[in-house]
Write a structure and sequence with these properties.
The protein is of the alpha/beta class and 316 residues long. Helices cover 46% and strands 20% of the residues. Strands 1, 2, 3, 4, 5, 6, 7, 8, 9 and 10 form a ten-stranded mixed β-sheet that branches. Helix 2 links the parallel strand 1 and strand 2. The protein is globular, with a radius of gyration of 21 Å.
Length: 316
């Protein structure tokens, strides 16, 4: 009887907490640099959920290929007031960085996915390559002389580059940065020769002639840059890489709060207005309930484990 009474009290407490939630600002930790897709979409979500959930604070904590900010989020109280904006960097790092301070599926509970987009392979205009085949030929003539930028180890930009190296059979040097904003600045200034970047953030620079777009990373051409071929059709069969974003919370966050957050995020990502706006940027919504998102995460971890193992990808 005492056990039943204790369970009943605990359940009542959780329900009361969920019903009064939120009573103060909710923090979204972004473990990547300002100005990148994760930062942009975290702020986008926060702005659109303020009417129903109140104030959102976006806190950028880049470093360590998402490890710094993610560790802070994993150690936060599981009360729904701290969320983590994650990407496939996190599913990659489960294999690539097994000794990190947290484990994704052990220390977080899935809340909801947000969207996905292709990556755009660009080179600085000074690089004497006007097609993907020319870039591959240049890299083979001068092994180890071309550099590519990323926002850190394990990020989609890094993995896209390593997968490209493996499938194209070339030797280019990885130059990790603290965030995608710094990596982007390096390619725009010519400090590095090439980069895979989210099409949502790099397309305007390519369209302005600040960089030269050679290929996109998806299965089909992007509607944002339809004249640019995919990596696979331009000379590297079987190549595919994307960047996707989602939200997780510290393990132990009450299910009622997780379900409410999922419902509010889904309202945003299911909006016809949002879908149309994102399509113009090259992003497509992902809509799942928490259980479906959990299975998605488990599947993505397995997918990247195989890619990393088969391609022999290791940290620099």
């Amino acid at each position: 009887m005492r056990l039943l009474a204790s369970l009943a009290l605990a359940l009542a407490s959780m329900l009361a907490q969920a019903q009064s939630y939120p009573s103060r600002p909710i923090t979204i930790i972004v473990p990547f640099g300002a100005g990148g897709p994760a930062d942009i979409y975290a702020r986008f979500l926060g702005e659109r959920m303020q009417k129903s959930l109140g104030t959102f604070v976006v806190e950028d904590r880049p470093g360590g290929g998402s490890i710094v900010g993610s560790t802070v989020a994993a150690q936060a109280a599981p009360d729904g007031y701290t969320l983590l904006l994650m990407s496939n960097t996190h599913t990659v790092n489960e294999t690539l960085r097994p000794k990190k301070p947290f484990q994704l599926m052990r220390d977080f509970v899935p809340v909801a996915p947000i969207n996905y987009s292709d990556l755009l392979l660009v080179v600085h205009p000074s690089v004497p390559a006007h097609s993907l085949k020319e870039l591959i030929a240049l890299a083979k003539r001068e092994p180890g002389k071309l550099n590519y930028a990323s926002s850190g180890p394990g990020t989609p930009y890094h993995m896209a580059g390593e997968l490209f190296k493996a499938l194209a059979g070339i030797d280019v040097v990885h130059i990790p940065h603290k965030g995608s904003d710094q990596a982007r600045l390096s390619i725009l200034s010519g400090q590095v020769q090439m980069m895979f970047d989210a099409i949502t953030t790099m397309a305007p620079n390519a369209q302005a002639g600040k960089v030269r777009a050679l290929a996109t990373s998806g299965k089909t051409r992007s509607a944002v840059m339809p004249d640019v071929p995919t990596v696979a059709e331009a000379g590297v069969p079987g190549y595919e890489a994307t960047i996707w974003l989602g939200v997780v919370a510290p393990k132990g966050t009450p299910k009622a709060i997780v379900d409410r957050l999922n419902a509010e995020i889904t309202k945003v990502t299911s909006s016809a207005e949002v879908r149309a706006a994102w399509a113009k940027q090259g992003a497509a919504p992902l809509v799942m309930n928490p259980a479906e998102f959990e299975q998605y995460l488990v599947g993505d971890i397995a997918k990247w484990r195989k890619v990393i193992t088969d391609a022999g990808i290791k940290l620099d």
